[in-house]
Write a structure and sequence with these properties.
The chain is α/β, with parallel strands linked by helices and about 130 residues long. The protein has five helices and six strands.
């Protein structure tokens, strides 16, 4: 299972979120059809662009819970002071992706930043 974790500034547009996801997938050599879910942190659960992007891509939106985010934080590849101050995670996108993909998941690479959106891809532990 491939999960795209999303972080963003407030009030971004849906197209920006979709573009960041597509860029992350392309960088990993994957097509949008490989995506199983979007994930985000509780602070971004109501962000319209993230909700709309999940609908547009026809995938489930997972809001990672605090315990899963805390566990995933140690496996993040990047650190952002802004993310830590806002969400308590070193990278909202990376931690959300890892949390949603499960405790044995791993990142496919560090998050990408495209404008006001960050996206990280995680794969569940049962995938090569």
């Amino acid at each position: 299972m491939i999960v795209a974790g999303i972080g963003c500034r407030a009030n971004v547009d849906t197209e920006s979120v979709v573009e960041a996801i597509e860029a992350a997938l392309a960088a990993a050599g994957m097509v949008p059809a490989a995506l199983a879910a979007l994930a985000t942190v509780p602070e971004k659960a109501g962000e319209a662009a993230i909700v709309d992007a999940a609908h547009r891509l026809d995938v489930t939106l997972v809001v990672a819970d605090a315990a899963a985010l805390a566990e995933a934080a140690a496996r993040c590849m990047t650190e952002s002071a802004h993310s830590f101050a806002a969400t308590g995670t070193p990278s909202a996108a990376e931690a959300a992706a890892l949390a949603a993909a499960g405790p044995q998941s791993r990142l496919l690479g560090p998050r990408i930043a495209l404008g006001s959106v960050t996206c990280a891809l995680a794969v569940s532990g049962d995938m090569p």
